[in-house]
Give the backbone structure.
Amino acid sequence: MSDRIRRVNESIRQVLSQAVPELKDPRIGFVTVTGVVTTADLRQATVFVSVLGSEQARESTLQGLAAAHGVLQAGLGRQLKLKRTPQLTFEYDPSVEYGVRMTKLIDDLAPAPNDDEPAADH
């Protein structure tokens, strides 16, 4: 991936991170833009999002974001001085949910500290 594409991806992520919470669509829940992957020709950008809530909330949010892609794309065009504004598609990013689940599993497996035993000096 070239440095230019990397900078474009990060710029798009920043702009969308600010724009998404301002959308007034009631289907859109609490969303975090976790990453963007843009094609080399800048014609398409896949936006990865994490959604807080149930499977139904996730699906509803993705539908709302898909419906709002034109507004978001226009905002990108105004804020980023690109020759061509990429067509946006939104995909769910399960990495945040996976990380939370792994942390919970580790916490469940870790022994609880015992107040009766002195701390071991290592």
In short: The chain has a mean pLDDT of 86. The chain is about 45% helix and 20% strand. The two ends are 44 Å apart (CA to CA).
